[in-house]
């Protein structure tokens, strides 16, 4: 996983037009978002375009990709492509929910700790450390095992609840350097309270940074979700790319030569997460002139 | 300095306390009764016998005591290094189960974490600002980091294990062997270790390489780099300096990523049927063996804490800024 | 109007607050209405810290700061009467928003009921006061404006409120020689209109240009203070002399400060705190070996 | 050599010639051609070697290291003497066992009748799994070194036979002083048994057993298990076992390997008992268990309609790829075919028939009043049942989905639900469920065990192992108890009672048989051949290392193996 | 004749077009001479400094030459320029505070830097120079973070001049310092020249008064062009260019009080260098501009060593 650099905050506004200019010319950004967009659209509209219930048994089990079944079928004759498009959807849902919740918590903790400093910072820091040190997957394993995960959304929720610490740290560091900026003092002298200052002065200055944090959290959530699905702690309802992987693995798809069952979901996860990471680096270059290739 | 470490220790202590408490709590407040399934497994038909066994085991595991008492006992036992008895692997003490498994997990995690970190950093530093490498080899890095651990692991197991037959797909050493200190055995160990290691290594490698690349670019654009080049210093020197500075955030990154890496190791172990904590945890969950679960979990927390502590020390040693007490935002 | 009584400020520093530095120690002085007081001292002597404490942005560690007899309480009411301008005009504006947002914020907080057009007129008037052409500066992003323009926007902003005291912290250090003088002239005009200014600087020439009284700070405490012409005309403290001699002057070459043989503080009978050399002219112990 | 079987292991060939002589072998490196690799029984580190802990002791503890008085021959359906030379009822309540002479414990001490009596008397301890034996056993007594006399207060012949081949005999001279805790919970390191193997080593993922060449059976029984070493591997999951099987690092997998049919058909050197569906022998019956204390499952008519609604064929084909066989309406395993009363089945049996199911529902008064496609209770309230199977049991999860789908076609609303195994156990015990799938009763010496499972009374607050349906039928239970007291060689007597029980079962349908789970056994012929098979002269025993199955033919299979190389 | 810059044009490539930061600069610098370079922010002072030692990626030489001690400097060839850097041309950057690698002790850094340039560190010489600027020797065994701003500034000075370069460019080395440190640093620079560590020096600042104290010659730049260049006293006492004059008039001096003498700034702001107006670039702000100012004024030598670019001068 890429770590976000704890670089000095940048001044995005003036550069906004320029940023757009570089954005459309940044190969990494465009390629990354392009791939994600294609998969997203497939996930969004695929289930509508291709009728059928993804888990329904078909008549031709274990058949390789063909005109009828684009990605072949599973041991049970389920259409892999149909599962794939539904799975994409859940993957995006997990990413958005997990990444979103983690981003919200991370932002809250990071902003408050960084802005208030002092004892508040210490306490929040401690909390962050605790969550950070406890192996996330282990906790998720336990939570999942005992509470059970029914839906993709609940899974996303739990992932979100455990994934925020590094984001909080990064945001805290950024806030730390922003809060000494004089416009923050000026806002205080204009009668703004803490919340307002964070929301109106500090956050907008980090918008690109926050967005990138979200991207990384999104990717992280997708990966964690796939791991959980894979070891059988995924949602019990619906389809997801991780569940497809798990099923393919459990029913020995590769050993039985059914690569078409195992490869697409993993490749799609890799593509989504990888493309996001690439886009993230692209974004970094767009917002930070120093990183641009000269 | 003393104060700094005192503070750190306090934080670690508290973290440990909270982690242990959470760890103790979770299983106890969850539905499902471990004794029930234990008795169920014993396949005893007779109602009386079942009751007798239940009572006996509840008493044995101390589950018939009030909660607070259980909690106190738990800490008391911990102090003696006693993690209780495994339910699933009854009557093996959890400590025994873990000590058997831990060498494997460590043998997997430590080299893959360290090597991927070292190699990834070197590699990323090397690729930074070198157009050709940057545009050809680094994308591979992105693909690697973005891979779900187990997907890569399964592909490796299938490709190199089943298809090509180069590597075994299960076990920590040949099932035909007994541990001994011969070269044959050591080679055999390595042979089994190779694929799980590789899958962990590759995924982590990509991440570090990318992180380092970005970091180095920042450093190459920094003032001290410009100064050096204005004085005509060769780019070798400049890169060396940049590397040293860029490595610092990567050290922090290591601390942040440790949890994820451990998780990756667990999944990989499961895929490769590699002995170690991974399969233990999975089975402990499946069998509701919460003493074992607590033990492994605690062990990981302890491991991560210690690793973090080491990283903290290393950080202070290599970054003079922390020593000068200026890096308030780090930590 | 503004009174500082034995104000001390300590900062905890180090990764975990292991050490503490006293940035300001036992500083007392007063600013009366319509007066410009300049606060002079080398870098790190605690000037900004005093300014920030007066503005309620940092709490004091001990001692008291009162404004019109009341202790400083950061809040809407206080800021209606006391405002500050900081050293760096570029970082005083949130780069994400247009520069005139500083006015909007004032309106939202203090004049929510004033109708739009009326407010716009008020802003324009205030801009003209600082000799800015409203058309030129409104609706622009900070980076599209020069440092001088930004600095004057900030002054205009402070003027929208009917303030009594302005804390101007090194407001000219970033500016060009020519812009700088414009800003100084503006402050001087405001003073004439009855505004008090605490003018913080390390450039003595700028300090003397405006101020009636000067406070020379050294390592957090007052070295010398008094009417400007006295402090510069007859510097009593060796530090003040050193500072004076270090200022590059156009038509003179550098000479070294005239060494002080005797500690004027003790000569003037100082026993504790500052000694009053002449009426209103105070000096601290020079800490010469003889003392 | 080596674990992979491929040519690329780093194992030097030096060890090979050494091993082929079979005399001295380096125990650090087992010769491939004398070692049997098995998996599918143990899923984690071997926890103990305690034969009293039949359910979780290391593989081979009972059967290879410790032995029982008898084995049970599933094909001939009779006990075969093992440690016992013979056993007979001397009167209605006295059973006398004659032991084989000359048997020694692995520590060299002679094996005597005292050891047998001691082993059974251990059951007097409350927490020992066979404690209830002492409810009807009055005393056990070693009358001389070779004779043991059992005196019963009630002679439960059926159960007694089960005891005879299930209880490990432990050496009195070692176990005598052990406390109850030690007997039940001791790990019993360094087990001393009479069996043909001893434990050589263990690790987190394996136990290694070494053959005892001085085993008594070699001469007395004329039997010898062929593998000099048995390595039982704890694989964490099925697909790993399949990978190892394909790599030829494994000889016998007792895992459920979905899709193995393809491999058997293809040229992978894998065999199963049958080379066509169902490929495996049957090991137990999977039942659909309705909670008969809840509405509408308390209505036999509803249960029968439900039974007719389940398309087991679809599960067998779709989920299992024909690796299992649909169960007969009685649910009795094929091995018990002779106890099935065909007349009862033909008159009262059921088959999958959606139309009939609908009809039954309609006749019993379950109608879809509100037009949502699902029938309601007679009082008009909605029927919405949940079917629980443990989360992670993928084949069952798929099956549950399938059941839900076919129930839907007849108008019964069933939602599959996958709680955690533990939670399921608890709900099952408390009766807090609508429907569940269960297969916990294995093949045994008598259908008695199945009927006990079906009808046992009284219903407790917690039903831990039997009668999860909480079905109360006094008459049925009386019949079961009667059956217990029929001598096991009285086939006709048994058939008569069983026929009545079958009638009750099919009329009332307390639990619904679904399919027969296989005696999963996939073997590789690369090193060992002559695996059990339906064909020709091949052995007909089961090729399993599962606990309690070595006595049911698993051990005999080992003696029939032949090295492929020779 | 140490440095000769003729008709130097250096542009920045930007999205919106070329920024003409240096637009035909011509001047000379003699051996032993200190040239003070003053001008408003953004007039191209740093650009000139950078052009002489290391152009960054966005800079482009459009025309002109730079000759140092008779050799033409390959200023736009980064590789060849390396031979001259440090040995012939050296730099004290504007960012001296952050110019030292934070994770190396200073001694080590200096050693490594010198070794990389093929020279061994002469510790005695280094310490002598440190003494000269008043740096204690233990500074060498500290990390940069442990030094104050002024110390860092002086350390960089010592390092930059270790190889006795012919030309030293000191870019705003004192602007971030307070007056007393500023004085010490400025004096140290003078000392370096006098000790012969550097032959000549370009001292970039926007503080006219400070320049006056150390420079022999002062060059005033306006919007990428030379406005006036003359010996320091001449500039201060008898400036000819209207811009210079206005600049001088806006300088407050110690003792000058608002109430006594009101100073005035220069109205208006410098033109954008993206698309600079034709003719005299100061025309818009110039109180005495006339018709002829629509033409670009040539640089004329009005008196010996007194160059002015103004029609009215
Ligand atoms: N937030 C803070 N935390 C710790 N130390 C601080 C903080 N702010 C200021 N200081 C310390 O307090 C002292 C005085 O700082 P202050 O900013 O008031 O000086 P100054 O006179 O304004 O200097 P300058 O002329 O450089 O602005 C310095 O030593 C500084 O390091
Ligand atoms: N990297 C760059 N890209 C584009 N334009 C630049 C760049 N650097 C400087 N400029 C422009 O070139 C002109 C000259 O800049 P330069 O830095 O030389 O000014 P300066 O005289 O040193 O100013 P200061 O006193 O603020 O340091 C300015 O108009 C500036 O905007
Ligand atoms: Mg300050
Ligand atoms: Mg500059
Ligand atoms: Ni004194």
What does this structure look like?
The complex is a heteropentamer of chains A (294), B (331), C (291), D (566) and E (313). Chain A has 294 residues and is mainly alpha-helical. Helices cover 71% and strands 0% of the residues of chain A. Chain A has one domain (13-291): MetI-like fold (Orthogonal Bundle). In chain A, helix 3 packs across helix 11 (241-250) and helix 8 runs antiparallel to helix 9. Mean pLDDT of chain A is 80; it is low at 1-14. By secondary structure, chain B is mostly helical. Helix content of chain B is 76%, strand content 0%. Chain B has 14 helices and no strands. Mean pLDDT of chain B is 80; it is low at 325-331. By secondary structure, chain C is an alpha/beta fold. Chain C is 34% helix and 25% strand. Chain C has helices at 47-54, 76-81, 101-110, 116-129, 134-137, 147-160, 177-192, 204-210, 228-233, 238-246, 264-267; strands spanning 2-13, 19-31, 36-41, 62-67, 70-71, 82-85, 165-169, 196-201, 213-218, 221-227, 275-278, 281-283. An eight-stranded mixed sheet of chain C has the order 6-7-8-3-9-10-12-11, with helices on both faces. A four-stranded antiparallel sheet of chain C has the order 2-1-4-5, with helices on one face. In chain C, helix 4 (116-129) packs across helix 6. Chain E is α/β, with parallel strands linked by helices. Chain E has one domain (3-253, 264-308): Rossmann fold, CATH 3.40.50. Chain E is built from nine helices and twelve strands. In chain E, strands 6-7-8-3-9-10-12-11 form an eight-stranded mixed sheet, with helices on both faces. In chain E, helix 5 runs parallel beside helix 6. The radius of gyration of chain E is 20 Å and the shape is globular. Chains B and D meet through helix 2, helix 3, helix 5, helix 8 and helix 9 of B and strand 10, helix 8 and helix 15 of D. The complex binds adenosine-5'-triphosphate (ATP) (2 copies), magnesium ion (2 copies) and nickel (II) ion (NI). One magnesium ion binds at residues 47-48, 170 of chain C. One adenosine-5'-triphosphate binds at residues 12, 14, 19, 21, 39, 41-47, 58, 206, 273 of chain E. Chain E: This is Peptide/nickel transport system ATP-binding protein. Chain E: Residues 3-248 form the ABC transporter domain. Chain E: InterPro entries: AAA+_ATPase (IPR003593), ABC_transporter-like_ATP-bd (IPR003439), ABC_transporter-like_CS (IPR017871), Oligopep_ABC_C (IPR013563), P-loop_NTPase (IPR027417).
């Amino acid at each position: 996983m890429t770590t976000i650099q704890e670089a000095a905050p940048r001044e995005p506004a003036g550069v906004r037009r320029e940023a757009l200019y570089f954005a459309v010319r940044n190969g990494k950004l465009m390629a990354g978002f392009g791939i994600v967009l294609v998969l997203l659209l497939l996930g969004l509209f695929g289930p509508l375009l291709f009728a059928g219930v993804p888990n329904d048994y078909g008549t031709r089990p274990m058949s390789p990709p063909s005109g009828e079944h684009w990605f072949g079928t599973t041991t049970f004759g389920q259409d892999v492509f149909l599962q794939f498009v539904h799975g994409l959807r859940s993957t995006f849902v997990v990413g958005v929910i997990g990444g979103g919740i983690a981003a919200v918590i991370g932002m809250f903790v990071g902003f408050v700790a960084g802005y208030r400093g002092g004892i508040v910072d210490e306490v929040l820091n401690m909390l962050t450390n605790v969550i950070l040190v406890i192996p996330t997957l282990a906790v998720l394993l336990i939570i999942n095992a005992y509470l059970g995960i029914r839906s993709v959304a609940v899974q996303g929720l739990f992932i979100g609840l455990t994934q925020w610490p590094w984001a909080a740290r990064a945001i805290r560091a950024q806030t730390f350097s922003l809060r000494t900026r004089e416009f923050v003092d000026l806002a205080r002298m204009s009668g703004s309270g803490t919340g307002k200052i964070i929301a109106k002065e500090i956050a907008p200055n980090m918008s690109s940074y926050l967005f990138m944090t979200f991207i990384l959290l999104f990717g992280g959530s997708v990966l964690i979700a796939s791991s959980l699905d894979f070891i059988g702690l995924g949602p019990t309802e619906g389809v997801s790319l991780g569940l497809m992987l798990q099923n393919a693995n459990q029913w020995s798809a590769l050993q039985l030569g059914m690569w078409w069952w195992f490869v697409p979901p993993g490749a799609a996860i890799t593509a989504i997460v990888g493309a996001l990471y690439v886009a993230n680096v692209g974004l970094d270059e767009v917002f930070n002139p120093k990183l641009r290739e000269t | 300095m003393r104060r700094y470490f005192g503070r750190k220790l306090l934080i670690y202590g508290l973290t440990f306390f909270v982690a242990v408490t959470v760890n103790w709590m979770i299983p106890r407040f969850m539905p499902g009764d471990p004794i029930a399934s234990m008795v169920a497994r014993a396949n005893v038909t007779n109602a009386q016998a079942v009751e007798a066994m239940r009572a006996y085991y509840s008493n044995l595991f101390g589950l018939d005591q009030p909660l607070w008492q259980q909690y106190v006992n738990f800490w008391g036992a911990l102090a003696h290094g006693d993690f209780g008895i495994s339910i699933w692997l009854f009557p093996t003490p959890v400590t025994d189960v873990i000590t058997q498994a831990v060498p494997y997990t460590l043998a997997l995690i430590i080299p893959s974490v360290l090597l991927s970190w070292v190699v990834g950093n070197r590699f990323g530093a090397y690729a930074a600002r070198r157009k050709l490498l940057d545009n050809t080899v680094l994308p591979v890095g992105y693909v690697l980091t973005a891979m779900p651990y187990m997907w890569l692991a399964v592909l490796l197991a299938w490709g190199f294990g089943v298809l090509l037959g180069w590597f075994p797909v299960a076990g920590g050493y040949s099932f035909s062997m007994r541990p001994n200190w011969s070269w044959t055995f050591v080679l055999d160990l390595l042979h089994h270790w190779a694929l799980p290691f590789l899958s962990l290594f590759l995924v982590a490698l990509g991440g570090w390489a990318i992180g380092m690349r970005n970091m180095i670019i920042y450093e190459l654009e920094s003032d001290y780099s410009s100064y050096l080049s204005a004085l005509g210093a060769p780019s070798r020197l400049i890169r060396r300096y940049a590397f040293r500075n860029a490595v610092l955030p990567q050290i922090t990154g290591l601390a942040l990523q440790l949890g994820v890496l451990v998780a990756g190791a667990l999944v990989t172990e499961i895929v490769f049927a590699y002995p170690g904590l991974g399969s233990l945890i999975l089975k402990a969950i499946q069998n509701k063996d919460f003493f074992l679960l607590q033990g492994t979990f605690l062990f990981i927390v302890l491991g991560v804490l210690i690793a973090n502590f080491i990283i903290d020390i290393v950080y202070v040693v290599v970054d003079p800024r922390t020593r000068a007490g200026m890096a308030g935002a780090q930590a | 109007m503004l009174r500082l009584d034995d104000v001390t400020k300590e900062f905890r520093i180090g990764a975990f607050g292991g050490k503490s530095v006293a940035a300001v120690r036992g500083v007392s002085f007063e600013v009366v209405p319509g007066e410009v007081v300049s606060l002079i001292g080398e870098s790190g002597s605690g000037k900004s810290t005093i300014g920030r404490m007066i503005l309620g942005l940092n709490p004091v560690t001990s001692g008291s700061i009162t404004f019109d007899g009341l202790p400083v309480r950061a809040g809407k009411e206080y800021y209606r009467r006391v405002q500050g301008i900081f050293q760096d005009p570029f970082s005083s504006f949130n780069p994400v928003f247009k520069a005139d947002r500083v006015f909007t914020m004032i309106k939202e907080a203090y004049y929510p009921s004033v109708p739009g057009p009326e407010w716009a007129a008020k802003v324009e008037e205030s801009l003209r006061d600082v000799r800015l052409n409203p058309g030129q500066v409104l609706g622009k992003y900070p980076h599209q404006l020069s440092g001088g323009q930004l600095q004057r926007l900030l002054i205009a902003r402070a003027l929208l409120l009917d303030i009594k005291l302005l804390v101007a912290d090194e407001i000219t250090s970033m500016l060009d020689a020519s812009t700088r003088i414009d800003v100084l002239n503006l402050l001087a005009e405001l003073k004439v209109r009855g505004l008090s200014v605490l003018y913080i600087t390390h450039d003595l020439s700028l300090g003397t240009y405006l101020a009636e009284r000067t406070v020379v700070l050294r390592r957090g405490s007052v070295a010398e203070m008094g009417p400007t012409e006295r402090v510069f005309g007859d510097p009593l403290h060796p530090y003040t002399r050193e500072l004076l001699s270090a200022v590059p002057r156009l038509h003179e070459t550098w000479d070294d400060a005239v060494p002080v043989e005797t500690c004027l503080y003790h000569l003037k009978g100082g026993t504790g705190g500052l000694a009053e050399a002449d009426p209103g002219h105070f000096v601290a112990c020079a800490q010469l070996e003889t003392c | 050599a080596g674990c992979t079987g491929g040519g690329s292991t780093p194992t030097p060939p030096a060890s090979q010639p050494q091993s082929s002589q079979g005399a001295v072998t380096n125990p650090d490196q087992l010769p491939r051609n004398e070692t049997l690799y098995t998996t599918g029984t143990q899923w984690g580190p071997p926890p103990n070697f305690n034969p009293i802990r039949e359910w979780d002791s290391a593989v081979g503890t009972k059967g290879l290291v410790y032995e029982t008085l008898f084995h049970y021959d599933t094909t001939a359906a009779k006990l075969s003497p093992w440690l016992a030379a013979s056993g007979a009822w001397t009167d209605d309540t006295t059973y006398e066992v004659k032991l084989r002479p000359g048997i020694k414990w692995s520590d060299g001490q002679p094996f005597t009748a005292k050891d047998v009596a001691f082993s059974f008397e251990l059951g007097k301890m409350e927490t020992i799994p066979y404690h209830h034996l002492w409810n009807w056993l009055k005393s056990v007594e070693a009358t001389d070194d070779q004779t043991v006399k059992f005196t019963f207060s009630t002679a439960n012949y059926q159960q007694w036979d089960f005891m005879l081949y299930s209880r490990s005999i432990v050496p009195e001279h070692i176990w005598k002083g052990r406390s109850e805790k030690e007997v039940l919970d001791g790990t019993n390191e360094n087990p001393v048994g009479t069996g043909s193997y001893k434990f050589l080593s263990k690790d987190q993922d394996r136990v290694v057993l070494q053959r005892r060449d001085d085993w008594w059976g070699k001469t007395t029984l004329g039997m010898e298990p062929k593998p000099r070493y048995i390595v039982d591997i704890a694989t964490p999951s099925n697909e790993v076992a399949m990978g190892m099987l394909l790599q030829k690092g494994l000889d016998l997998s007792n895992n459920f390997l979905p899709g193995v049919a393809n491999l058997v058909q293809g040229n992978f050197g894998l065999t199963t008992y049958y080379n066509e569906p169902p490929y495996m022998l049957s090991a137990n019956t999977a039942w659909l268990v309705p909670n008969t204390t809840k509405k509408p499952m308390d209505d036999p008519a509803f249960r029968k309609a439900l039974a007719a609604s389940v398309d087991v064929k679809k599960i067998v084909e779709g989920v299992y790829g024909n690796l299992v066989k649909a169960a007969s309406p009685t649910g009795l395993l094929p091995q018990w075919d002779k106890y099935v009363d065909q007349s009862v089945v033909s008159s009262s049996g059921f088959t999958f028939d959606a139309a009939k199911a609908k009809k039954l529902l309609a006749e019993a008064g379950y109608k879809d009043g509100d037009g949502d496609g699902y029938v309601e209770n007679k009082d008009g309230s909605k029927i919405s049942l949940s079917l629980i199977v443990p989360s992670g049991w993928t084949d069952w999860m798929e099956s549950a989905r399938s059941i839900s789908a076919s129930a839907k076609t007849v108008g019964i609303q069933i939602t599959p639900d996958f709680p955690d195994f533990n939670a399921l156990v608890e709900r099952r015990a408390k009766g807090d469920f609508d429907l569940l799938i269960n297969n916990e009763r294995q093949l045994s010496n008598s259908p008695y065990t199945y009927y006990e499972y079906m009808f046992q009374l009284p219903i407790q607050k917690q039903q831990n192992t039997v009668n999860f349906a909480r079905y109360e039928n006094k008459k049925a239970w009386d019949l079961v108890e009667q059956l217990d007291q029929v001598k096991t060689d009285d086939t006709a007597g048994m058939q008569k009672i069983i026929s009545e029980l079958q009638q009750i079962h099919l009329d009332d349908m307390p639990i619904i048989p679904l399919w027969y789970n296989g005696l999963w056994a996939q073997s590789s012929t690369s090193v060992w051949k002559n695996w059990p098979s339906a064909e020709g002269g091949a052995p007909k025993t089961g090729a399993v290392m599962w606990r309690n199955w070595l006595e049911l033919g698993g051990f005999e299979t080992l003696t029939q193996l032949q090295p492929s190389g020779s | 004749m140490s440095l000769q810059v003729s008709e130097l044009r250096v542009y920045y490539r930007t999205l919106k077009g070329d920024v003409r930061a240096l637009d035909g600069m011509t001047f000379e610098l003699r051996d032993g001479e200190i040239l003070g370079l003053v001008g408003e922010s953004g007039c191209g002072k740093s650009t000139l400094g950078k052009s002489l030692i290391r152009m960054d990626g966005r800079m482009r030489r459009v025309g002109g030459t730079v000759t140092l001690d008779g050799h033409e400097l390959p200023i736009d060839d980064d590789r060849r320029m390396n031979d001259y850097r440090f040995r012939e041309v050296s730099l004290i950057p504007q960012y001296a505070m952050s110019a030292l690698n934070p994770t190396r002790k200073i001694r080590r850094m200096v050693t490594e830097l010198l070794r990389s340039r093929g020279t061994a560190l002469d510790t005695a010489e280094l310490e002598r120079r440190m003494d000269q600027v008043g740096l204690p020797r233990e500074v060498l065994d500290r990390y940069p973070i442990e030094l104050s701003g002024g110390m860092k500034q002086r350390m960089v000075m010592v390092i930059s001049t270790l190889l006795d370069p012919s030309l030293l460019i000191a870019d705003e080395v004192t602007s971030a310092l307070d007056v007393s440190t500023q004085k010490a640093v400025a004096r140290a620079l003078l000392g370096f020249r006098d000790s012969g560590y550097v032959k000549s020096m370009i001292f970039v600042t926007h503080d006219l008064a400070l320049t006056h104290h150390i420079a022999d010659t002062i060059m005033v730049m306006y919007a990428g062009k030379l406005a006036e260049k003359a010996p320091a006293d001449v500039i201060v006492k008898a400036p000819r260019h209207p811009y210079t004059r206005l600049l001088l008039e806006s300088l407050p001096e110690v003792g000058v009080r608002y109430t006594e003498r009101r100073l005035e700034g220069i109205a208006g702001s410098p033109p954008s260098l993206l698309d600079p107006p034709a003719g005299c670039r100061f025309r818009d702000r110039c109180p005495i501009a006339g018709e002829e100012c629509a033409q670009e004024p040539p640089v004329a030598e009005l008196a010996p060593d007194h160059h002015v670019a103004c029609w009215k001068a």
